[in-house]
Structure formats: C-alpha cells, structure tokens
Design a protein that fits this description.
This protein has 18 helices and 30 strands. The strands form 9 sheets. A 10-stranded antiparallel β-sheet has the order 1-6-7-8-9-17-13-12-11-15. A 5-stranded antiparallel β-sheet has the order 5-4-10-16-14, covered by helices on one side. By secondary structure, the chain is of the alpha+beta class. The protein has 2 domains: 309 residues, Beta-galactosidase, Chain A, domain 5 (Distorted Sandwich); 397 residues, Glycosyltransferase (Alpha/alpha barrel). Strand 7 and strand 8 form a beta hairpin. It is globular.
C-alpha cells in the first residue's frame, strides 16, 4: 500500500486558519420571542432541576459548544468509543463513556522524531506537532513544529499527515487507519487504530531515525489524577507477526478500560519501551533518554502501579541509506468491554468482545490483530472508495464530502452491544447475530437514535451496514408495542402525559444519563405521541431497507416482523389525525414533527408528502405479505389523500407549507417533497405526486431557497417567502439544515436535476469544511451569517442518499 494519500479528500496545512469563526450565540428575533417565552421559562426550571439532581440536561442551551476548528478524522471502529484527532495531530475529543464527550487535547499523547547522523550523534529531536510548548508540563520537549512544513489529508476512515524537515532532507508520512469497512461487522466494531510511518531519507547521507509514540492514562479529565493505573509490558506474536507494547489498566467513570500502544517488530528495526513517566512533569527523563541514542532504556521493571501515568514506545530505524526509506507501524487500542449508562440499571457488553472477549489479554490480542490486518483493511477501504474516487463525472469536493461526513457513524456516540437473552428473540431477529446498535442525535443533543432525524441519516447504515439498520428497526419495533405510563410534563406547553404511549413510534431510545433502551422518549419538549411524521417514517424506512437490500428470504422475514407494528401505527395515525376523513392527515397547529419550532396547521406539504408516501409503501408491503385486503384499504386511503393533497396544497408552482390562512402558509419549504424523496430512493415507480408538479416544485426551491439565499453558496434555506425573502416566522424557518440539504439534492438527482443537485450540496460542504472549520463536527443548522446550531449532528449522514441516487441514475443509464 502506497504511503501517498489519494488525490481527493480534505486538505489543509497544519498552520491553517479558517476564514470565518462562528458560534451558537444566535438570539431569536423580537417577533419570535413571544412564541418561545413560555418554553424558555419551563426550560429554565427543567435545567435547574437537572443540575440540582447532579445530571447533565439532555440539551444544554445554557452552555452551548463553540466549534474548536481543530478536528480531523477520528480513530476507532463503530460502537466501541472513539478518540478524536485534530488536523494538527492532536488526540482530542474522547468519546469512550457511552453518550458523553470530553473535549481535551492531551499534551502527552504525541509522536516524536529523533534523527542521528551516521556516527550515532543526535542532530534533531522534535515533537511532531505545531502546538506551542505547554506552560506547566513537558517543558523539556521541543514543541512548535513549523506548521507550514506539515500537511493534513483526511478521507474517512483514513488520514495522512506529511512532515517535511528540510534542514535534514527528511520527509515523514503518517497513515492513520481505522477499521471502518462497509459490510464487515467484525473489524468495524474494533476499538483500534494503526499509524504507519514512512520515513524518506532524501539527503545524501545515511541517517538513523527513530519514531516514538507516547500516550497517557485517562481522557484529560480531572478524574485522571485520582485514578489508580497499572502499566505493564507485553509481547505477542502469531504467523510471523510480532508486536511489543505497553498496557495501561485503569477505570473511566468506574468502568475498566485498558489502553494498549504497540509497535511491530521487524528486521532492521529496534523496538524499545518506556513503562511509565509523569505526564505532568517536565518530561526531561523521557526526552533525554531518547536524545542520547534514539531509544528507551527499558530497565528490569515490567509492571508498575501508579496514579496518572504515561508510557511510550520507540521504533529505531538504523542506517537508512541516502535516498532510501523505512516504515514503522504503531497501534493504539482501548479495551472497554463492559459499560453502563449513568442510570447503572444494566451492564452492556461491547460487540467486539464477541471476537476478543475470551482472550487472556484482549488489548494485546487487539494490538496484534490490528498490526497484522491493517493492510487488508486498507485494501478493503480502497476497494470500497475507488469507484467513487475514480468516477470522473463526480465533482472533487463531493469525493471528500461523501466519505468524511461518515465520521458520525463511529463518532456519534454510537454503541454496539452483544444482545443479551437472545433465546427470547424470534429465530429471524437480526440482533441475535449482529447485536444491538444505537447512536446519538448529536454531540449536544444527547438522545439515542432520535428517530425523526435518523430517518434522514439512515441511508448511511442501510447502504453500508444494513444489518445495523435492521437491528435498529427491530429495536424501534419493540418500543412501538410498549408503553410507559410514567407521567411526563412537557416543556412546550406544560402538558402532562404518558412518557410512552402504546402503538406509537418513539422519538428516541433514551438519554445516556438515564437508561437507554429501557427508558425511551427522553425528549422533554413535546408529547411525541402527537407527532405526525414518526409513523410515516417508520413505514418508509421499513420498505426502503427491503427495497435497497438483497430482497432475500431473510429480508422478507425482517419486513414481516415489522408489518404488524406498521399497521398499528398507521391505523392510529389515520384515526387520530384525519379529522375530515379525506385520507390526508392534518397537523395540529403546534410543533408536531421534526421541525419542532415551526408549526404546521391542517394538511401540510411536509407531513402530507410523508403520509402519502407511507400509504404507497403500505400498499407495496401488503403485496409482499400476501394481504390484498390491507392493500385495498391503503389504496382507497391513498386515492382520497392524493386528491386532498393536490387540492389543498398545490398553488400552481409548488406545494404550500400548509393549508392554514397564516402569514407563512405559502412559504416555500425546501423539504416539502420529503415523501417523494423516499419513494424514489425505494424504487417506487407509481406516480404518487404528479411528475410535473414535482419538477416545478424543485425548480422553485432551487430558484428561491438555493440561489436567492447567500448568493447560492450555502445550500437551501428551510423557508423562503414567494417574494424572495427568507421566512423568519420562526428560528427554524430561517435555518439551513445540513442533512435536509443533502436529502433535497438527492431528490433533485432522482428527478434528473443533476447540476442543481451538486450545486445545492456543494454549498453546505464548502461552508462547513472550508469556510467555518466545522468538519468532523458538522452542525445541524447554519444561519446565513455568524451562527450555527447543534455541533456534531446525525442528519448530515443523509449525504449517502445522494450516492444512492447517483448509482441508480448510472445504473439506469447503463441499462439503456
């Protein structure tokens, strides 16, 4: 595998400064405040109660995060915890405790280079980071590598860091590899990363070069100092591969966690280790030891107990000839097999332990496995990505966006557990083999699998890890049939109602401060049993998953398992929310769908299009289930609903926001054809919405929401008035939702508007990654200037629906 990065990806110098710095300090407009004031007052009471009880509020609007503009590709697999890395080489943003993030850049977690001449004299030693020297620790180390001489290249799940040392004619290239591989469920679950260093000696003299990897216990939290650690050396070998490393055993928030750093032992290299050093001292013992001969003096000690500690491993490459090169391989693993949420009602077992849980020393086994298999990982990643990267019809920016937005699958608080009590599951339940999976709505919106948002994001799972999507759907199905009669007081209107009503689709699977899976619907603002979009979204995902899958017996059995719940939620929605019997559901004049501050009243384009699409999918599923009577019932409802939808909402150019007589009822909503997006994505050929109406609406959205907003450079704003101004009725109507923009672009592509689709999506990518420096923490929403909302969000994973549309388009073209 070449050390050179591919031509495409996100690229910056390590001294890069972004052109714009934004924050979350957006203040509602004066006219928006009256609608928000009661909610705000109730939220303050909720916030105070949570803090007094020692809990973090589910959504902390009091301490919203400001993007650090430092992040690059995170490391680690799916559902096992992740460690963020900055584009300057930092180890940062630790997401090891399920559902929580710790935003610490740890000084002791570094790579160091030592260069000696042919006589063994050290002529250069440097921390490979452009960070300035820390004030209170490791002051003996040489910091501040010239950022202009170092480049970062990110293409998830890999990254490349290139360092030029012109005074010694040395070039270093570090390949960072995580095992996130579509359709590979074993390796994708592993808490591991590999760092492959290529050392190029471009001088005319022999050089002796060492690369050292140091790593500290803990996560940079204040609890690190009170945690007892045990560090020890280890060796492992198998089938010609041999590794040496250091383990740090510790506890994180009461949960055992072992770090392991290791290096491959190869001919013509020397591996040496430092068992323990003080990460808060001046670091002179470590630095001077390396400075002397480019190696650690190991000593006789093999195990040591201490409080906060750090360790190191050094690989020395002697006598690299002029014009020659050498390669050094390191791994980092973290074994945290048993975890719990704050409620501590259950202990969960990480999925990777299915393969490594019986090992005497899982961290050592993981290290050996990672260093023995990373080349295969890279080959599989390359095979997956090359069709996109080599497609000359795809724009360059897109080749970065499509893979880098996927970071959230691992770094979105994802948890992937072995399913306990499998004997209680039906024989065809996918969770028996592939476990239980969930992930957060966002880094700040701490709810597992917020289903209204996952509806958009789910394309990434359905296309790349379909078994995880099916597992998640089975989880939702179970919750649909359950009830929780605990009385909840909702913040929007003070209403008191059941936490979970039977035969309703949940908003989410729970808060990590409580007990996710056991306590769904943590969302405290609205009574989600009254939401109009959730039932449709359950049905649409169920059919979409079947339609894009292999359509084999197992897929049909899975669909059959969801069929009863689908019928129940559709019956309830029709009976409760279609007051006039025209087959089309109505909104209630309060926030009753994913746009939870943008009220819809009567039939609406958003919920109406989802409902029509869901009725059509129920018809399709009834055929597969062999239930023609059910199909006839849904066909009758659909025919009536179609007529009502066109009569009440079509205005000759687009579908009105809703059918009320409010001042914003004729707003041009960018998401008005969300149902059509899912139908086209699912390969449904029946014309549920008149084709000419669909095309007209999309052209209107492109003309107004895209081109007349921010000079066409930021995607599509959620709402525009017919006279070409941003709809400022509510906060959300004037936002750009990153994930909705990608979904809209996908629909445009399905409808043949390819140039418009790429233009629309490009604005979001360039704004987030190139202008405001929010890559790898893509926010939910952007404002035209200065502000964003909700850092690190699930919905932008919808970009994978663009790739799905593109491939369907190319396939149809090839067929012709």
């Amino acid at each position: 595998m070449s050390s050179l990065p591919p031509a495409y990806g996100w690229k910056v110098k390590m001294n890069h400064v972004f052109s714009e710095k934004r924050n979350q300090n957006f203040k509602p407009r004066l006219k928006q405040i009256p609608k928000l004031l009661p909610l705000g007052l109730r939220y303050l009471a909720y916030y105070g109660k949570a803090i007094a009880g020692g809990r973090q509020p589910l959504m902390d609007y009091w301490h919203m995060l400001t993007g650090k503009q430092i992040y690059g590709v995170p490391i680690g697999g799916i559902g096992c915890g992740t460690i963020g890395r900055g584009f300057k080489g930092e180890f940062c943003r630790y997401q090891l405790r399920p559902g929580f993030y710790e935003y610490h850049v740890i000084d002791a977690n570094q790579f160091i280079i030592t260069i000696q001449d042919a006589d063994g004299k050290t002529i250069y030693q440097q921390v490979l980071s452009p960070r300035k020297k820390p004030r209170n620790r490791l002051s003996s180390w040489s910091w501040a590598f010239p950022g202009e001489n170092a480049h970062y290249h990110g293409l998830y799940p890999r990254a490349w860091m290139t360092y030029d040392i012109p005074e010694h004619n040395i070039r270093l290239v570090c390949r960072q590899v995580s095992p996130v591989i579509p359709h590979n469920y074993k390796d994708s679950s592993l808490p591991a990363a590999v760092f492959v260093w290529t050392i190029e000696n471009n001088s005319k003299e022999v050089k002796n070069v060492s690369i050292t990897f140091t790593f500290k216990s803990g996560t940079g939290d204040k609890d690190d100092r009170s945690s007892v650690c045990c560090s020890e050396f280890y060796e492992r070998k198998n089938d010609g591969n041999e590794v040496s490393g250091v383990l740090i055993q510790q506890q994180l928030k009461g949960m055992p966690c072992t770090y392991g750093i290791s290096a491959s032992r190869k001919e013509k290299t020397n591996v040496s280790r430092c068992l323990s050093f003080d990460p808060n001292g001046n670091g002179s013992d470590v630095w001077n030891d390396l400075l002397e001969d480019g190696r650690f003096t190991e000593g006789d000690e093999t195990k040591r107990n201490s409080y906060e500690t750090a360790c190191g491993i050094c690989v020395n490459c002697p006598t690299i000839p002029a014009g020659g090169s050498a390669e050094v391989e390191f791994s980092l693993v973290w074994d945290m097999p048993k975890v719990n949420f704050t409620g501590k009602g259950c202990t969960y077992t990480r999925f990777y332990t299915k393969y490594f849980g019986k090992e005497e020393s899982p961290s050592a086994a993981l290290s050996l496995y990672a260093l023995s298999n990373y080349k295969r990982w890279e080959e599989e990643i390359k095979k997956w990505q090359e069709p996109v990267l080599n497609d000359k019809e795809l724009p360059d920016w897109y080749k970065s966006a499509i893979f880098n937005e996927l970071y959230f699958v691992s770094d979105g608080g994802s948890v992937w557990f072995i399913m306990e009590d499998c004997d209680k599951l039906s024989p065809h339940d996918v969770r028996k083999e592939y476990g239980r999976f969930s992930y957060l709505e966002g880094h700040e919106y701490r709810m597992y699998t917020s289903y209204d948002v996952h509806f958009y994001a789910s394309f990434a799972l359905s296309l790349l890890w379909p078994k995880l999507q099916l597992s998640l759907q089975r989880e939702i199905c179970d919750v649909v049939l359950s009830e929780n009669s605990a009385m909840y007081k909702f913040l929007f209107d003070g209403k008191v109602a059941f936490r979970k009503v039977k035969n309703t689709v949940p908003h989410d699977l729970g808060d990590p401060e409580e007990e996710p899976f056991l306590l769904p619907n943590a969302y405290p603002i609205h009574d989600v049993s009254e939401w109009r979009d959730l039932s449709s979204k359950f049905v649409l995902q169920a059919y979409r998953d079947y339609a894009v899958g292999e359509k084999g017996p197992a897929d049909l059995e899975h669909l059959r398992a969801l069929w009863t719940a689908a019928k129940l939620v559709m019956e309830r929605t029709l009976s409760r929310f279609d007051a006039d019997g025209d087959g089309l559901i109505e909104n209630g004049g309060f926030p009753d769908q994913t746009y939870d501050s943008w009220t819809m009243e009567g039939p609406s384009a958003y919920c109406g299009s989802l409902w029509l699409a869901a009725l059509q999918c129920m018809i399709e599923m009834s055929k597969l289930m062999g239930e023609s009577d059910e199909g006839d019932k849904y066909l009758s409802a659909l025919e009536k609903a179609q007529q009502a939808f066109e009569t009440k909402l079509w205005n000759g150019k687009y579908y009105n926001f809703d059918s009320s007589k409010s001042s914003h009822s004729n707003s041009i909503m960018s998401d008005q054809l969300c149902g059509q997006w899912y139908l086209r994505s699912s390969g449904v050929t029946k014309e549920v919405f008149p084709h000419d109406h669909v095309v007209s609406a999309l052209k209107t959205i492109y003309e107004f929401n895209v081109l007349k907003f921010a000079n066409g450079s930021m995607g599509a704003v959620n709402g525009m008035t017919p006279d070409g101004h941003v709809d400022i009725y509510t906060i959300q109507s004037e936002e750009v939702w990153t994930g909705v923009v990608y979904a809209l672009a996908s629909l445009m592509m399905h409808e043949g508007m390819v140039e418009e689709a790429f233009k629309t999506a490009e604005g979001i990518y360039r704004t987030v990654y190139e202008q405001i420096g929010m890559g790898f923490e893509t926010p939910e929403a952007l404002y035209e200037k200065k502000f964003y909302r909700a850092i690190g969000y699930m919905r932008p994973l919808s970009i994978w629906s663009i790739q799905h549309a593109w491939e369907k388009r190319k396939s149809a073209g090839d067929a012709k």
